[in-house]
Design a protein that fits this description.
Layout: E1 3-7, E2 16-19, E3 32-37, E4 40-50, E5 69-70, H1 79-91, H2 96-103, H3 113-116, E6 120-123, H4 134-139, H5 144-156, E7 167-168, H6 169-176, H7 180-188, E8 192-195, H8 217-231, E9 235-240, H9 246-259, E10 263-267, H10 275-285, E11 289-292, H11 298-310, E12 316-319, E13 331-337, H12 355-365, E14 369-374, H13 379-386, E15 390-395, E16 406-411, H14 412-417, E17 421-422, E18 425-426, H15 427-438, E19 442-446, E20 455-458, E21 475-477, E22 482-484, E23 491-493, E24 505-508, H16 512-522, E25 528-531, H17 541-550, E26 556-559, E27 572-577, H18 591-603, E28 614-619, H19 625-631, H20 635-648, E29 655-664, H21 667-685, E30 699-700, E31 703-713, H22 718-734, E32 742-747
Parallel strand pairs: 9-14, 9-15, 10-12, 10-13, 11-12, 13-14, 16-28, 19-26, 19-27, 25-26, 27-28
Antiparallel strand pairs: 1-2, 1-4, 3-4, 3-5, 6-7, 6-8, 17-18, 20-24, 21-22, 22-23, 29-31, 29-32, 30-31
Bound molecules: adenosine-5'-diphosphate and zinc ion.
Amino acid sequence: MVTVDVILPLAIADIYTYSVPEGMLCPPVGVRVLVPLARKTITGVVYRQHLDDSTASGQIHVALRDIIEVLDEQPIVLPSQLSLWRWMADYYLCTLGEVMAAALPARLLDNDYIARTEVYISLHPRFTDVEQLQPIFNSLHRAPKQLKLLEYFLDLSDAFDNAPHPVDQRQLIEQSGESTAVLRTLIEKNILCASHEVVSRIPSYDTDIESAHPLTPQQQRAAEEIDTGFADAKVCLLHGVTSSGKTEVYIHLIRQMLDQGKQVLYLVPEIALTTQLTDRLKRVFGKQLGVYHSRFSDMERVEIYKDLLTSQEAKVILSARSGVFLPFSHLGLVIVDEEHDSSYKQQDPAPRYHARSVAVVMAKAAAANVLLGTATPAIETYYNAKNSKYRLVEMHERYAGLSLPHITMVDLKQQYHRKEMYEHFSDPLVERMREQLALGKQIIIFQNRRGYAPYISCRHCGFVPKCGNCDVSLTYHKRARSLVCHYCGHTISAPDCCPNCGGEWHEFGVGTERVEDEVIGIFPGARVARMDLDTTRNKKSHQRLINTFARHEVDILIGTQMVTKGLHFNDVSLVAVLNADTMMQSPDFRSYERAFQMLEQVAGRAGRTGAQGEVVIQSFQPDNPLYTYLQNHDYSVFYAEQVKERRMFRFPPFYRLIVLTLKHRDYSRLDTAARELSQRLQAVFGNRCSGVIIPSVSRVQNMHIRTIRLRVETAASFAQAKSLVMQHVQLVQSLPNCKGVIVQPDVDPM
Ligand code: ADP
Ligand code: ZN
């Protein structure tokens, strides 16, 4: 009997074995097959063939069931991808199916036959211009659902950007949240129309190709050092201060690769935050650039995936972390830009992978090079570079001889004591802002919390509104007049007064909305904008906001960590941080590292052209050494300090960590399981295993949470340790009083 092992997108078993029915050719490795599972049909990918009667290696169901259908003629997953999946499943302690579900665009694994016939929606041909829609808008005034759907359609179809294209019906329905009935009405009214036509959606960038800038001597030297590093088969770390022109070095190296006919993967932390970079790369690489976008519809992702699979052309793909899953066949270089950024780590669901680590593994298998770039390296990365595992390449000077920004500390204790504060703005900061506005400059204010106030409390009885599902207080959003749980999204409208006693609310803490109100209060004439998750949910709004600020139609931009990342604005002369201390107060061992990175990055937005930029940091503890390192832009002293602590307190890079997160609705069952597991692991690992840890948010979406942390010496066998851990996890999960408790392993947690 001929059988095949199939990967199914499930977390239960790694591999499932099916028989190939008489008369069906044995499907090759990497093609999709439709198979029965219990009473369902499900799409999987062939992992291995067993052409004779030799034993199949997967989980065998009592009676082996037949494959129903082979869906592809050619493999859609390459052998190199399958071995990367295998590595990821083993390293990150999950199933091949979980990796596959993350790796393939959802549409490729869709089991819904009906959905496979795609329907595209476009504007009815009687409209030749969006302007002609004005009477329609007026007529839909009383049909808000149709109006909303139409607006979503126009946005998704890029109708206002003069590049209208059809929109996938499912995407439209999903994103607008309206029903197909509403859509049908619009079609019956001849406003929209539906078709089955497949239109290529990969935007092609026909813009004039611009040549790359000639490198400066410093950049030239860096590029040469990187080349030697690559020749020695080393991962290179390009540590270049903000605005040293790392992008120019990347462009130079990408060009070299493309000229050799190789593919390049260019990873960035969050693709949505990189419109400026995308534009720059489009101008240099034209059609050779592909953008793999998490905000793209799945259809567009499928197209890029398939294009890469079938085309042999040299390409550079710009992508967020999921780019590591693309089917590269002749990869030459992987660039991990802003390698320190924690969004390279996938938190949920499994695989909980770090794209930087995966990039190193995939590049090694393909004999390709890896370049990590940042102004603020992760401690682990810099350690590797200092200990010759990686090649360290440095650029100390900003482009065009500009100075790094000057950082001034403002002592909040003193300011409050002397009553020299206007709400959350100290007098010296207000003074600086006034000065810069008068000079016609722009200002960025960084406050890493969205909403108006992190929580509100009754002035009379002290009542604090909390989420019904999670163990957290609700954040007050003034604009939306609502209280929102930032963990599960639960939203209620904000009551005018305390529901217990009718008392007045007191708003605690500061979010970006409140900062915006205060700024408007202080500078009534200034043009103010806010950039956070709430103002950038829409596909285009983020880009619009950046463009508006870049065109200097806004004077003051207030934002969360979104404003710290990679942006380049000519007229920004001042950056302010309202309260920097909060970043260091989290109990995480990385909190100082994160604070340093975030502050150095946001400071790096100031003074990128012209005069030296200014940064004002308000703090209750201005003497904290971290601020001194920042003021001197001295990463290496900061690093030395951190590494000492990491060694002393047994953290990475000296130890590897695994965090086990246990979850259950029933508090006592969870508690029993957590104690069982921690005791058993302590028996094996001694004090490398923690006791049961109650996390600061110990209930989310009605699931109680406990964690256990394990540290393993870097020199020890990590694989062996992990296998022991998983044995005990399974053992505990099978105990009668622990059944049903979820255990999620997180390897190299962030
Ligand atoms: P980084 O990524 O190191 O923060 P960028 O690559 O964004 O720095 O460069 C900062 C600015 O300097 C950009 O506006 C860029 O166009 C300009 N720049 C850097 N290098 C050059 C160069 N060799 N020629 C012309 N402009 C450059
Ligand atoms: Zn909640």
